[in-house]
Structure formats: structure tokens, C-alpha cells
Amino acid sequence: MLKTTLERLERNLSWSVLKSVWSRNYCMSSGIPRERVECVVIGAGVVGLSVARELALRGRQVLVLDSAPTFGTATSSRNSEVIHAGIYYPPNSLKAIFCVRGRDLLYKYCSQRQIPHKQIGKLIVATGSSEIQKLHNLLDRGIKNGVDGLVMMEGSEAMRMEPELRCLKALLSPVSGIVDTHSLMLSLVGEAENCGTIFCYNTTVIGGHIEQNQLCLHISQTKHLEMCNGNSPLQPEIVLIPKFVVNSAGLSAPALAKRFDGLQSAVIPTAHYARGCYFTLSNTGICPFKHLIYPIPEDGGLGVHVTLDLNGQVKFGPNVDWIDGIDDISSFLNKFDYSVCTSHMKHFYPEIKKYYPNLKDESLEPGYAGIRPKLSGPRQSPVDFVIQGEDIHGITGLVNLFGIESPGLTSSMAIAEHIATKFFRC
User: Fold this and answer.
1) Which DSSP string corresponds to 34-77?
2) What pTM was computed for the model?
3) 304 with 278: CB under 8 angstroms?
């Protein structure tokens, strides 16, 4: 049934943009095809892929839609690739619960499927006396969150472990690690497809409307959306009527939810965007560190830290650069500014040298940038993940995922498990 739907969808989406005009209350012209499907996951990032796989494993017919040519082109491919332990987040928060559960699921999944990963451990360091109490607070929080193996160390002990490190005290998290996110996502796609999931790329969900308390999705080819001048209403080429919808659109999830006509705007949180740049260490034959090295967290992020990838490359970042949002269409098409501004480099050196004083000048080179889909802005307290079902917004079958920033990668399989268990019972 779903295969037939896809064949019709692909055929319909090959048409030129239909000229049927629909009014503000979405009285659709009969010229726009309508198709019923069981489950639609919007967004093929690591969370969307995990959700699609989990639903497919439970016997659901799943269709994944993404505006990009392939999976994982936004936040999922522009992060530190770190498997977090669960230290930073308020006890009993979704971030804490899903990070700890997701970490265990992720390690097990990667081990069983030979996905490249490594449990290398992390040192969170205090380089000034004023930071020592903050380090103890992190230890207490990590213990409350159920993180195993945490050890508070004197600086001398940590520096024996890492001779290039300088610190007064350090918190060792042995269960932290790194993962090859592309291999992970490729595995999730393959497993979902083996269970019948169908992926439709270059396909954008541009909005929706409510009929009989059920969300109908408006679909357009991405190439037609790219030609839109923004002055005329977006016109769907096909309307999908799913039984279940998971809005896992990441950076554009709030903007898309605002285009679901009939969804109360009061339940849609304000989106904030924090760009983070990474710089790589050049001209080094020997990696200076064996562990991940993190400073005390800062406003909006975890500080400029040392990340090692599975090829031994050393990365520093990300910083926190608050940026303004962009228009809806650009958001749907992921046209955020991912450029790495070299002027930021001068701010990296003093931050890194607090714990790595032997860093040589002119040894950093631009790497890449990512953008965090945050629900809190500058100087605001961090906000938890938001996972909305019918009990919040009143629309049958719709699950909105908002603010799935770090530790979203680590939490992805736990989020999928939660969604499948809580919202897909019938």
C-alpha cells in the first residue's frame, strides 16, 4: 500500500507546480492529488532516522520526507560527533533521561553493527579557582542523572594522564566517546529500508491544515520551492493525509509548525539559533590528547573543547555565535550561513590556551560550522527538549520535536523509543 503511494507521489511530484490557487482557509482545488499514508517522518537527520527505524521495526509503514538530496545534511553532519555521558543536564529532564538511555542504546547498536566508534572518555577541567565549585556541581548532577564511573581528580593526576593539559582539577567521565555519524545514519537508513521504510528526498513539507482533527501535509518538490520568489503563497503539488506525523525537521521544525493551519501558535516555542565554528589543528604528527577535553560550560554551549575524530584529527570548538533566524522558505531549504569566519580564530587561541598552553600560534585552520536549534537565547537559562503530542496541542497523530540540540545525537535512539512507545500505541 505504501509502495503504491510512493509511486503515485513520485509521479505527482514530477509535474510542474500546479496552478490551482487555494485560499487562506485551504479550500483545495480538486486538481491537487491527495493520498493517505500511515506514518510520515519529516526530516532525515539522525533523530528522524532513528524514529523511522524504530517505527518500522514495530511494523509501521513509514515514509520519510526531506528537502535535501540525501539524509543528515544539516545539524546531524555538523556537530562534534561526541557520545555524551549525561552530566550537564538538570536531573529528571528529558535531556538527562534520554542522554543516559540513548548513550547505552547507541553503544550497543554501534557494537552490534560494527559502526566505527570509541569510548575514549572525557576530562572536564577547571583552569581557575572560581571554576572548582562548578566542577563539583557537575559531579553531583552527573551522579543524580545516573552517570557511572565519574571521578574527581586533582590537576596533577589529570596532567599525568594528559601531559599537554593544564588544570587545577578535572572530572573524568570514562563513558563518553565518539562515533562516526555518517556510518551511524547510513546504518539506520539501511535498517529502516529493510523494514519497508521509503525515503523521499528533494521533497519539502511546506505546511499543512487540519481536517477532522487530522493533519494534512502540503508537499512540494524542493526544486520548485527554490524557484519561489516569496511573494506568492506556497502551493502544494500533493496533499498527504497521514495517520501519524513526526515533525523532526530540526532547525526548521518551529517554522514548519507555524504553517500547520489550525495548530495553536501558543504551543510553538520561539526558535533561537546559535552557530558554532570548529577549527582543526594543522601540522601535527602526534595527537596531543587521548581524551576529549572540555572546559566548564559557557552561556549557550559547552565551551571550546577538544574533540578527536576516529581518524585522529584534532578539532576545537564550537564557539557560540548567536544569529538571527531566516525566512521560512530558506529555513525549509537549510539555507543557513555555515561559513567559518576566520576572524573568530583570534578568540579561540586564548580560550584553548587556558587548558592547552603549548598550542602554537598559527596552528589552527578553519574546519566547519554547525547551527544549534535552540529554544533559549543569549543569557537565558537552557531549555529542555520539547516533545509534543496530542495532549499538548490537541491534534490527533501529530508529534512535534522542538529544540533537539545537544545531546540530540546521543539521545536519538532513546527519543525514538519514547515516541514509538508513548504516541504509537494503537
Assistant:
1) EEEEEEEEE--SHHHHHHHHHHHHTT--EEEE-SSSSS--SGGG
2) 0.92
3) no
Q: What are phi and psi for residue 393, nearest 5 degrees?
A: -105, -10
Domains of the chain: 119-175+271-374 (3.30.9.10)
d(CA 260, CA 26) in angstroms, rounded, equals 11
Q: Give 3-state DSSP helix, strand, coil % of the chain, rounded to 5.
A: 30, 25, 40
- Amino acid making up residue 135: L
Fill in the amino acid letter for 161: M
Q: How many CB atoms lie within 10 A of CB 27?
A: 9
pLDDT in tens, 142-201: 999 999 999 999 999 999 999 999 999 999 999 999 999 999 999 999 999 999 999 999
The Cα 350–Cα 293 span in angstroms is: 15
Tell me 393's DSSP state. H
Sign of CA dihedral 79, 312, 339, 305: positive
Residues 6+ apart with CB under 8 A from 7: none
Q: Which residues of 140-179 are buried (b: 16+ CB within 10 A; e: fewer)?
A: ebbeebebeebeebebeebbeebebbbbbbbbbbbbbbbb
CB 263 within 8 A of CB 213: no
- Cβ atoms of 332 and 255 within 8 Å: the answer is yes
Residue 208 to residue 396: CA distance in whole angstroms: 14
